[in-house]
């Protein structure tokens, strides 16, 4: 369900707010701006990776890997859920 909500936010709300829009990221960035932090990248994942590692990764590359890992997680989740559903309905 969380992956589907993320997809909804990125792709549906993203139509109006920009691809990859996330309500939680928007809220977090607004709080940080109120606290005086204005040097935030567009991507929350980039912000996290840069903050944790101390690196300054390429934003486009970070976005690509974020999307790839998201799609992999979604595919695996759907696969496991379908297997569980079939197993449950066979018995």
């Amino acid at each position: 369900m969380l992956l589907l909500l993320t997809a909804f936010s990125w792709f549906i709300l993203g139509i109006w707010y920009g691809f990859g829009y996330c309500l939680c990221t928007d809220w977090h960035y607004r709080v940080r701006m109120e606290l005086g932090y204005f040097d935030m990248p567009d991507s929350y994942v980039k912000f996290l990776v840069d903050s944790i590692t101390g690196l300054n990764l390429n934003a486009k590359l970070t976005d690509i890997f974020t999307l790839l890992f998201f799609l992999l997680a979604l595919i695996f989740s759907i696969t496991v859920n379908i297997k569980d559903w079939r197993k449950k309905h066979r018995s």
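The mean pLDDT is 94. Residues 59-90 form the longest helix (32 residues).
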